[in-house]
Amino acid sequence: MAAPFDLNDDGVVVIVGSGAGGGTLGNELAQQGIDTVILEAGGRHEIHDFVNDEWGMFGQISWLDMRTTSGSWRVARDFPNLPAWIVKAVGGSTVHWAGASLRFQPHEFRVLTEYGAVHGANLLDWPLTLEELEPYYDRAEDKMGVTGTHGIPRLPGNNNYKVMAAGADRLGYTRYHTGNMAINSENRDGRSSCLQIGFCFQGCQSGAKWSTLYAEIPKGEDTGHLEVRPQSQVLQIEHDDAGKVTGVVYADAEGNQHRQKARAICVAGNSIETPRLLLNSASAKFPDGLANGSGQVGRNYMRHMTGSVYAVFDQPVNMYRGTTMAGIIQDESINDPARGFVGGYEMETLSLGVPFMAAFLDPGAWGRDFTWAMDRYDHMAGMWLVGEDMPQESNAVALHPEIKDQYGLPVPDVRFDDHQNDIKMRQHAFRQGAAVYEAAGALKTYRTPPYPSTHNLGTCRMSERPEDGVVNKWGRAHDVPNLFVSDGSQFTTGGAENPTLTIVTLAIRQAEHIRREMAAGNL
Amino acid sequence: MRVIDKRLQVGRRGFLATGAATAAGVGAVASGGVIIGADGAWALNVSTLSPDAASTMLQMARDIFPHDALDDSYYARAIEPYDQQAGEDADLHSLIEEGTAALNGKAQERHGASYAEIESEDDRVGLLHEIENSALFKKLRGDLVVSLYNQPEVWQRLGYEGPSASQGGYIDRGFDDLNWL
């Protein structure tokens, strides 16, 4: 039967969310002839809806539903109701992502073995290896057109990159280049090459940047096996007496509730909504939440060690021209405990327009020190620091005890404390980032604290043993045989790399697993 | 390399900025419900807020995010929406009226002048530091992040070009034209 599918069609696979995980999985399943319904909480905004307007697009696509924060992280003070900067729209956060597509390093799949036990950290090796993932990384890079892989030329470096590269060179770094980006450097896959518009976070108006919105979902829809229902927020997953999931209850744009039956359910709502949905699906049979026999649903929330360094030069830079993430230094991404911390970090150029710079350069700041920098906006260069953070059981997405959303369901509270390892890594990264710009001649450098989280990971982590995590090496729930997690929630640990490529890789592999298991009669 | 001319162009109101309008604090006179820039180039009309409250807010805005290159009209534009909002929100109305009255009370006590009439920026900023945890200060500072810095005219003065897609991006307009390294 071709899409659209009936609410009572219990032969469909239901995917919750349409971002890097859900959108990719939906297309991959459809390509294999598997009938699939994606339920997406947000609306469908196509490329022609995008505008080069930071606050305008923030209002249009961001996930702004009520959330609370707790713990000692600075985001809880500066942005108490915005723990994460992610997207609520078809395409999910692949609409606003910067495009960096880096593979995990081999040791990052076995951190407990490599780093040993770290006090206060809930470290665990992934139940899979880089070798197992490599063929799928290949497919993901090819699908996404990642520059610097598969013979695809790298992008040219913009002014912001030139400054960072000059500093890197003078500092003795050697592993710097314009990145592995899922942004077309030449026409590819029916999409144009990059026009250096900037505004990558506002949705790519040329379509050069890979997004499930236009690079995956329409291909799936063309097969007749994929239906995407926007403005369909899933409220609860239902199950039968045997403990298998049977369907979901969701609310449409008008708030009317529907029940979509399902053969299997894949949850890909990003690492806050995914555990929230499992916790809100608690039942008599699963009193602590669905698939939560381990008690790990919502726990081990990771957000990457992050921070930014901006620098002011006596000459103009105009960093906002061209791609937001225009280059990378990788020398610090290794694990070298001699630096005083385990794991590593990447240094990636980043630029914000004046509206966002005013909000994020130093949240809460005022006075002449602040305006001195803003007056020199056109002389600024910037980089983002992103590294592996430690999973901690107490860093958790939990249901708020009192505050409810418009459907009467508890809103999520996101609790986070930096681990000592995160703090030491950030200090090192701030120092090195400032040193890069000083080597390039900076007049002044600024250490900008973390933005609301863009990389949300680990809240339904993969584990070999059911007692250690929520899903197995295929993203399949240990406790519920036809329930999958298909987003960054699966990550056992975070690595130093931007997570989207790995999320896409896991989704491609999961789609194959689902087909095999269906063919074998196990699903 | 292609650089941005951050100087004020002939503005929408057809005036040329003079140095006098920039560095000396809010050069404004209040008359009835209208606060008029000293150079006559802009006016802030208030109907629900008192002129004292509005002119105090204006000077506070200038002192919170002081940009010598921006004349008062940009700050007036950021403050203007409070007048209508205060008409619809009694809590906001009293927050602004009472908060500015308290600040002016402190100003009279310390410096014998209302806040906006204190000549020394350091003296004014000293008073702001005393109230920086107050509800009014937090609201004004937080709102200004958007109401001041999201003005396209401000972008140009700070050297930011804004939307580029309609001009074909920067691929032929200087994305890699840096040549001083």
- Beta-strand fraction estimate of chain B: 5-15%
Number of strands of chain B: 3
| Average of per-residue pLDDT values of chain A | 98
Q: Beta fraction of the residues of chain A?
A: 15-25%
Alpha-beta classification of chain A = alpha/beta
State the separation between the terminal residues of chain A, measured CA to CA: 19 Å
Helix content of chain B: 40-55%
- Which word captures the global form of chain A? globular
What would you call the structural class of chain B?
A: mainly alpha
Largest sheet strand order of chain A: 4-11-12-13-10-16
The helix tally of chain B amounts to 7
Please mark out the parts of chain B with pLDDT under 50 across 5 or more consecutive residues, or reply none: 10-24
Describe the protein in words.
- With 523 residues, chain A is α/β, with parallel strands linked by helices.
- The radius of gyration of chain A is 22 Å and the shape is globular.
- Chain A is built from 13 helices and 17 strands.
- Chain B has helices spanning 51-64, 72-79, 81-88, 90-111, 121-130, 135-147, 152-158; strands spanning 28-31, 34-37, 43-45.
- In chain B, strands 1-2-3 form a 3-stranded antiparallel β-sheet, covered by helices on one side.
